[in-house]
Amino acid sequence: MVLDKLGSSLKDTFKKIAGLGVVDKEAVERIVLDLQRSLLQADVDVLLVSNLSKNLKEKILKAKPPAGLTLKEFFIKTLYNELVSFLGSERGELELKKQKILLVGLFGSGKTTTAGKLAKWFKTRGLSVGLAACDVHRPAAKEQLKQIAEQLEAKIYTEGKKAEDVAKFALKNSKDDILIFDTAGRNALDKELADELRNLGKLVQADEIILVIPADLGQAARKQGEEFVKLVGITGIIVTKLDGTAKGGGALSAASVTGAKVKFIGVGEKMSALEEYDPNRFVSRLIGYGDIQGLLEKAKEVGFDEKKAEKIAKGEFTLEDFMEQIQSMQKMGPLSSLTSMIPGLSGAKIPKELLDVQGEKMKKWKFIISSMTPEEKQNPELIKQARAQRIARGSGSKPEDVKQLVKNYEKIKKMMKMVGGGKGLKRGNLAQMMKQMGVKV
Ligand SMILES: Nc1nc2c(ncn2[C@@H]2O[C@H](COP(=O)(O)OP(=O)(O)OP(=O)(O)O)[C@@H](O)[C@H]2O)c(=O)[nH]1
Ligand SMILES: [Mg+2]
User: Fold this and answer.
1) Cβ(145)–Cβ(112) under 8 Å?
2) Cα–Cα distance, 277 to 93 (Å, whole number)
3) N or C terminus: fewer CB in 10 A for the chain?
């Protein structure tokens, strides 16, 4: 998978947001720091990273979330949108119409391969394609393009000594819908290359002049892009070799600030390894949009309170805290998918049904607790026969139910104190806890 390292660290960041107890300044700063680390590792320009961080902090800490969104959801959505705009925001397109495309770029960036990939892309969309081999400098260049053309059954134009001669020949003879001009690369954008490209540009009058940039350039893609923009006025960029580098995030974000849109990305050596570039889709795939949707749902329903969960794990909790936690967990759905968000719970595999069967009993307990005095809630051990009877009457239950709840609470508290010891819940303990509460495991 392309950019999997960046993808998985971004995914972690999103998960951390969803798992936040409170979204305060400190939490936002911690998350932003996390994000910065991931982006810098992907060779993103420091300035771009700092802009993104600033935007994010301002939006989360100063702006109010729109109605209907919790702060956490707002955080997740804002980060998502910022990443999309960071990587270009708009979708780069090539029209399906008769046109001339000039490919430019430095040595080995992938121009010739990309000429073939584009030919295939247009051909599979029903347009005829011709390839003009305007790289007359590298001895095997024409031969390389010829082989690609044969493989794709595209027309090929090679005649002429100079690049311009080949271009003229192609322009004169081509009846193809799409005519793609492959050009020579250089180590740098020197005068010779600049002159040749300028002349070709004038002669061909291409509809699209596309700069081909390898992703392993990382943030240097910005400077190169800007140079080519100045020289030949490129209309778009194709970033190649995204499959082979962790620096692709840097290249894509850098390319997107040159003012020319990234139109396609190259993700392999094969002719089919070309993808249309849509920042929105790219981000959603990078971080797993389904996962983000899931996190959004969770962030919406409950504010899972980590601090409270920790207190519970240490055996420091009131009856109400305890009920609240169990309810949060119920709302949050399958516990197994949550374990990574709750400290101390990672690795525990708890069947979903375990908490679902609690519904009726949970309701009853809620009524019982709401019939207690604040003092009783804090110190349930005060509840003996007389109090139990009063509470049962108030909550429409039996004194035995009240006593059972208190007994279970005390058992669990004791158990948690024993096993928790500040380290949080250990594997299987929650299951044991449920058993103590009378749930069949
Ligand atoms: N992994 C990977 N390799 C690629 C990709 N695009 C091109 N390549 C490889 O990169 C090398 C150079 O590609 P070319 O298409 O010859 O590059 P060029 O820009 O035409 O090179 P010059 O004509 O010498 O300037 C070849 O080995 C390609 O197979 C890509 O998206 N992924
Ligand atoms: Mg080439």
Assistant:
1) yes
2) 8
3) N
Q: What is the pLDDT of residues 302-346, one digit of tens each?
A: 444 556 656 666 667 777 776 766 665 555 544 434 333 333 343
Calculate how far, in angstroms, residue 245's C-alpha sits from the geometric centre of ligand 2: 21
The amino acid at 285: R
Would you state the pLDDT for residue 182? 97
Q: Which residues of 383-396 are buried (b: 16+ CB within 10 A; e: fewer)?
A: beeebbebbbeebe
- Kind and range of the H or E run holding 99: strand 99-104
Instruction: Compute, in angstroms, the gap from residue 349 CA to the centroid of ligand 1.
Output: 47
DSSP 403-436: HHHHHHHHHHHHHHHHHHTTS-PPTTHHHHHHHH
Confidence (pTM) = 0.70
Q: Mind listing the domains of the chain with CATH numbers?
A: 4-89+287-295 (1.20.120.140), 99-277 (3.40.50.300), 303-436 (1.10.260.30)
How far does Cα 68 stand from its chain's mean position?
A: 23
Q: Kind of pairing, strands 178-182 and 208-214?
A: unpaired
How much distance in Å is there from the Cα of 113 to the middle of ligand 1? 5
Residue 3 CA, chain-centre distance (Å), reads 10
Check if 183 has its Cβ closer than 6 Å to any atom of ligand 1. Answer: no
**Pure H helices in 94-238:** 111-123, 141-152, 163-173, 191-204, 221-232
Atom of ligand 1 nearest to the CA of 141: 23
Q: Which residues fall within 8 angstroms of residue 424, CB to CB, at 6 or more apart?
A: 310, 313, 343, 344, 345
Residue 261 beta carbon below 6 angstroms from any ligand 1 atom? no
